[in-house]
Amino acid sequence: MPDCRYLLLRGHSWNFRLKVPADLKNKHGLKIHITEPLGTRDLKVAQDLRWELRAHWTKEFARLRGKPIEERANARGTYWTTREQAEEGLWGRDDDLIGVGIDVLVSEVERRTRRSIYDDRNDPETDSDVIDPETQAKIDGLNDFRKYQSGEEVTPAPVYAMTFSEAGKAYLEANRGVLVEQTRLQYETAARLFAEHVDDKPVSKVTARDAVAFFDIIRRFDPLWGRSPKTKERTFKELQRLYGSHETGLSVKTLNRYVTALSCIWEHAKKRQEARGDNPFKGQWSRVTRKNSRPYRPLTDEELAKLFKLVPKHRVLWEIPLVALYTGMRLNEICSLQWANVRQEDGIWYFDIIAAKSEAGVRVVPVHNRLAWLLERRSNDPAERVWPELTPGGPDGKYGWKVSKQFTVHRRAAGIEGDDRWRTAFHSLRKNVTRCFELARLPQTEAAEIIGHEKQGITYRVYNPDGLTMFQRKEIVEVIAYPGLEASGVVGTWQQERAA
C-alpha cells in the first residue's frame, strides 16, 4: 500500500493534510486540520512535496508554543538515534517499542496515520490517533532504516534534517578554540542572517539561488550597519529595511568574509552527511582588486613629519608607531611584548615575536639603532610588559585594540586622511617599511623574514627553514631609514619631545 501520510486525495488532485495538535486547536486562527493543495495528480510528486510543508508546520507549531529550537532538535535527535540503534541492533529497548518488530511497528503506525487523515468521522475533540513528535521520529527512523537495509536511497524528511542555524552552531562548536573571538562572532552573524533569509531551511536544501539572492541583498547594506547596539535584536528583514539601500554598500573584502563563513559551515555539514553536491556559496567569491577596494598605502614623508610633530599626551601613541616604523611589526605584535621578548644574541638585541597573526609571523626582528632608547629602560622582570599601561580590549582581548582607536584619532588630528583610492591607518607604517626594503632593492625572501610573510617557493622556505643569521637580519633592519623625518630630529624619545 502506498505511503499516504499527510496526504488527502480530493477529486483527482493531492492535498497536504495535517491534524492540528490539541493544545493549538482554535488558537492563533488554527482549526482542526490544516489542508493545503499540492497542485499535482502524481502521488510520487505529492509524497516529495509533503515533507517541506510538514517541516514548515512542525516549526510553526513549535514557534507558537514558544520553543521552536528545542522541539525541532529533539525530533531530529530522536530520529538519528533510532537509526543508529537499529543499525547496531539496539532498537526497541526503550519506551513502548520494546519487543515490537520493525515491520509490525511501521504497519501499525501507517494504519493509525491513515485513519487520522481520512476518517472525517473522528471526534474533533480527541487526539487518540495523533502520534506525538517523539514517537513519530522513532517510527520514521526505523522505517528509513528498513529502506536502507533493502538497498533503497534514503532521504530523511526535512524535519529531521539539520537546519542552517544548527549547522552554524555545529561548525562553531567544532572549531571552539580554533577561531579567534572576533572571527567567531563574524561567522555567527553570517549564519544568523542567512538562516533567517532562507527561513532556516535544512542545510541540504540550500541552493545556489538562495546564495545569490542573499548576497544581492547583503551587498547593499550600510558598511556601519553592525555598530548599532540593537543589531542582534533585529531580524534580517528589519536590518534590510533600515540599512539595505546604501549607495556603495559593503566592500568586496567584507562580502568575501561572509562567503568564507557560509562556505565553511556548509562544508562542515557536508562532512557530517547533512548536505550533498556542490557548495552553493562557491560562486559568490569576488577577487579583490584596486577597482573594488581601497588598500592601505604608506605615509608620505610630509605625513610622517606631521604625525610625529604632533606630540601626544601619552607615550604609547609616540613609541608604538616608532617601533612599527623601524621594524614593520604589526600593532598587536608590538603591544603584546613583554621584556622577556626583548632578547640578545651574539651581542645583537632583537624582538622575539611569538604573538603573531600567522605561522610566518613567528620570527625575530633585530632592534633598529633608532630604537636604542627603548633598551635603556629595560626591566629586570621578564614578565613585565614593555607598555604595562596597555589593557586588553575587544572580542579577543587584544592589547592593541584600544591603541588602534586612539591612533586613528591622533592621525586625524595630525591631518592625515585617505582618499577615494587609498586608506591610511596604523597598518600604513608596515607599508612604509616594505617601501624602504624595495627602494633598497632587497630580495623578497629577505624582506619577508622581517615583515613576517611566508616566503614564496620552496627553495628557501623548505630547504632552509632557519633563514638568515641574526647579523644578516640586523643588516636588513638598518636599511630602514626616513631621511626627512630623522633630519627634523623627531625620532627621539617621547620624554625628550615632551620636554622640548
Automatic annotation (TrEMBL):
Domain Core-binding (CB), residue spans: 162-270
Domain Tyr recombinase: 294-478
Protein keywords: DNA integration, DNA recombination, DNA-binding
Superkingdom as given in the UniProt entry: Bacteria
Family of the protein in this entry: Belongs to the 'phage' integrase family.
Record's protein name: DUF6538 domain-containing protein
